[in-house]
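Chapter review: from sequence to fold.
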Amino acid sequence: MPPSTRCGARWSRVWSGSYQQWNIYSTAYQALFAGRHAGMTWANLEQRADNVVHVGYDNSTNSNPFSGDTPSSAVLPLLCLKQDGRPAPAGVPTSGFHSWAGGEVKATAPLPGSQLTSRAAADQKCAGAFGSGFRMAEFHDASGWGLWANGTLPTNTRFWTAINDQPANPWS
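The token string follows.
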């Protein structure tokens, strides 16, 4: 049977005895299923008056860095980071979990996680909103579980945050 087109991508099916095999090209898979996985989110843990913020895992059932914690249909800001090597302010840890990220964080306008179809797409949203050098913040940017950076972020909200070694992203 010849290949067909659905959602602008190609697919084909093959009959083999008593079962049917579907051969789906990666572009078809992305068109049909991208952005349907739960993504990991972080919270604003502390906002200091000196323009320093602590974001990360909030020690509750709200953050899941292993399989994601929020459906991709949720509409949340994207946590963006620009690491430029600036020194840590007084009182901020410089090593270990929840340490200084050496940069600035900002949050985009809220968007559905389903728009984050790849890490590159998420990074582009950050760069498009805030300029060159900004990208989606990642779990390990400051040794893991959280980070400190310059910036002012909304409180009482969650942020889409990437993780590079677990299937806990909306595009996973």
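Two observations follow directly from the output. Residues 4-9 have pLDDT under 50 and may be disordered. The first helix runs from residue 26 to 33.
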